[in-house]
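Re: the 176-residue chain
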Amino acid sequence: MNVFVLNTGRCGSSTFIKACQHITNYSAGHESLLSNTGNARMNYARNHIEADNRLSWFLGRLEQQYGDNAYYVHLQRNPQDTAASFAKRIDFGILKAYEQGILMHEQHKLPAEAIAHDYIQTVEANIMLFLANKSRKMQISLQTIDKDFAVFWNNIAAEGNLDKALQEWKTAYNAS
């Protein structure tokens, strides 16, 4: 079974995968098929855990490829903290793509945090709609990660070292 960690970004997805690398019966990757297009973009190995915030823009293709035959995690962080982190990255990455490509703002018309909040709202709505009919899913909050991650571990019948996985949450990977 594949596991997809759907998220906005800036919410602990890098750390989530670091923790999942202590699971021995799954592989785990962060944005591992980022540069692929076409069918190769959704061609994840079996029993793989993938975190990639761009999957929120590929939900139709994710549905076609995996549908209800995968386990989905909706990873969330306090929206204010997420927006503040994104605001520091307004000039590159997905927030720049959202501002310039989706909103069509060639110049910064709005404060960075306003753009970030709009992006977060859009992605969260996309994820919630996608997950509405899924039977294997879980919402995980960064604020309650120790409890939530242990439940996730059990839900996917993970094998490995849970204690080491939980230790990973003491390090902030990819912090702004």
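The longest helix spans residues 112-131.
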